[in-house]
Amino acid sequence: MKKRLVSLFLALTMTWGLTACSGGSSAPASSAAVASAQGEAAADSKTENTGTDAGAKGVQEQGAQGQGAQGRGAKDQGTQGGKAGYTLNIGSAMSSTNPSSVALQSFKKAVEERTGGGLAVNIYTDSALGGEADLLEQVTSGTVEGMMQMGAANWEPYNSEVNVALLPFLFTSLDNARDAWAGEFGQEFCEKLLEPTGVTILSVWESGYRHMTNNTRPILAPGDIAGIKFRTNENSMKVKMYEAVGGSAVIMAFSDVYTGLQNKTIDGQENPLANIYTSSLQDVQTYLSLTGHMYDAAPLAVNTAWFETLPEEYQAILFEEADNARKVDLQENDESKYLELLKEAGMEINEVDKETFQEAMSGIWEEFASQYEDGQYWIDLATSFNK
Questions:
Q1: Do residues 281 and 266 lie in contact, with contact meaning Cβ atoms separated by under 8 Å?
Q2: Of 63, 160, 324, 348, whose CA is between 20 and 30 Å from 241?
Q3: What is the reported pTM?
Q4: How far is the CA of 331 from the CAs of 46, 58, 76, 216, 385, in angstroms?
């Protein structure tokens, strides 16, 4: 692709950008990016991104102003060094205390230091720029530069073959899952399924193993799920999973989950332990069942057209520091720590009969393999990392 020159106008208007900071549509000016679904009461704890509503709004409106993905962005904590010639705005649906958000702050600091402030990185947590579906649309179209997607299968609207990433019990251990995504499986998945949508994957981080929570009853076996309304995002693989065990799936954005549980629109949900705790879902859920039914990888992606405007040195820095920050993310994403925190918060923890869950969901593998020409290839490549 042709590289586009960065406009001198961008540098002359950086003062404007300093007035805009990450902020959500409901959070006050001194709060974090946006209050998560639990409402404004939780916003006080989000201290990583401060500023006004203008930050998030300004980033989203750049496309309409003709700036595209090179638009002027808000700065959450300022840049290291002098004026930035380039700006990378990164949106995330997660809270500012989520492991991925902690790692993003590490990434921001390293990139700004290594570029001498020439590349500013602004981080918007708590769905300040929209939910994951919104971010996917914005980054692929170029109206926002970057995003932290907490599920590789979130690209389903563009290519449903990505659902191999969510086949139930695809990996037999956490180490095997991490090795697969850091190895040939992850590389091919990104190159063949994600990057053709107009994004460049800087690194694949971790959301983690997904576990079920609910307020109805302890879930020990598949039969216990019947009659419980579980939230899921708009993903057919997750809907099929619930159907396979007699559950009921309700499509809902992650930012609405807390309120949905609070007002009983839904009875339960499923997420990695870090996501559950850092989103305060333990405050509105009683039972946690350690199903570990799916492993979610978390791609850090940027718009390719924007990426190609950067000097090659900056491009290399982004790749290197994204991989370095991945190590931070994996360290922070400690299941044993979050399990203990959820216990302390009063959740009832239940072990499950995983073999019965695997048996109940086995037909999903067969369906995927037959649905796509390369379906069995993807399964074989992923499971080749199981040791």
A1: no
A2: 348
A3: 0.81
A4: 21, 33, 24, 33, 21
Calculated CA dihedral for residues 161, 211, 269, 169, nearest 10 degrees: 30
Number of Cβ atoms within 10 Å of the Cβ of 12: 10
Q: Which amino acid is at 207?
A: S
**Residue among 241, 290, 291, 249 at smallest CA distance from 266:** 249
Question: Most distant CA pair in the chain: distance in Å?
Answer: 63
- pLDDT in single tens digits along all 387 residues of the chain: 433 333 333 333 333 333 333 333 333 333 334 333 333 333 333 333 433 344 555 565 554 333 444 333 333 544 444 577 999 999 999 999 999 999 999 999 999 999 999 999 999 999 999 999 999 999 999 999 999 999 999 999 999 999 999 999 999 999 999 999 999 999 999 999 999 999 999 999 999 999 999 999 999 999 999 999 999 998 999 999 999 999 999 999 999 999 999 999 999 999 999 999 999 999 999 999 999 999 999 999 999 999 999 999 999 999 999 999 999 999 999 999 999 999 999 999 999 999 999 999 999 999 999 999 999 999 999 999 999
Question: Residues 44, 128, 213, 98: what is their CA dihedral angle, to the nearest 10 degrees?
Answer: -70
Q: Please state at what angle helix 354-371 crosses helix 375-383, rounded to 10 degrees.
A: 140
Phi first, then psi, for residue 201 (nearest 5°) are -90, 115
SS (H, E, C) 293-340: EEEEEEEEEEEHHHHCCCCHHHHHHHHHHHHHHHHHHHHHCCHHHHHH
SS3 199: strand
Q: Please choose, from the candidates 62, 53, 81, the residue with its C-alpha nearest in 3D space to the C-alpha of residue 9.
A: 62
Distance CA 104, CA 22 (A): 14
